[in-house]
Amino acid sequence: MKNKKTVLLIVALIVVLLIASFAYNNLSKNNQIDLDELKQSSEEKVMLPEFNLIDIDGNEVSSLDLLGKPTIINFWATWCGYCMKEMPDFQTAYETYGDKINFVMIDAVDGIQETEEKGRAHIEEKGYTFPVYFDTKMEGVISCGITGFPTTLFVSADGEVLLGLSSYLSKEQIMDMAKSMIGE
Predict the structure, then answer these.
(1) 47 — phi, psi (to 5°)?
(2) Strands ordered across the beta sheet of 102-108
């Protein structure tokens, strides 16, 4: 009697798994994204908006003045652990590709949680040499729709935003993106 129950239970389990597998396959086929259709619907270029920043020397600079060659823009803050973790990798990328790619490291200064003084102190303490800018009025954060840190934008020489990633990037990811931006 016990063996019959075990066999029935196993058969029932197999039937349930087969039904679940069939249902999953059919539902996922109906919800797949057609990449060709997506490419066609997003043919309009997304351009980097104009916003003002403060450079390390205290001068006001327009975001559009920072273009002219492929550009990597990274929004960060000192309170963001992942931002701090990826900064040495951006430094390495800057040292490797800084002659071919503009690096724009933007400290998102809200004046409360993040201050320009904290950002300056961190950059000086760590000895970073990549170009640093301060978004003291949060113009860049707002106009670029930044909702989390770190966020990195990969921008063409003419200002087209090619890709935006709101997450930590590994050294390999940063280097791979830099290489692809210059066609290596």
Answers:
(1) -100, 150
(2) 60-62, 52-55, 132-135, 102-108, 71-76, 151-155, 161-165
Q: Which two tokens stand for residue 98?
A: 């800084």
Which pairing describes strands 71-76 and 60-62: parallel, antiparallel, or unpaired? unpaired
Can you list the residues of the chain whose pLDDT is less than 70? 1-43
Q: Output the pLDDT for position 98.
A: 96
CA distance 73 to 80: 16
In this structure, what token pair is assigned to residue 128?
Answer: 């970073």
The pLDDT, as a whole number, for residue 33 is: 35
- Omega before 88 cis (within 30°)? no
What local confidence, expressed as pLDDT, does residue 19 receive? Answer: 60
Q: Tell me if 159 sits within 8 A of 153, measured CB to CB.
A: no
For the stretch 61-73, pLDDT in tens is 999 999 999 999 9
Inter-CA distances, 32 with 21, 22, 23, 86, 176, Å: 16, 16, 14, 33, 28
Phi/psi at 27 (5° precision): -70, -40
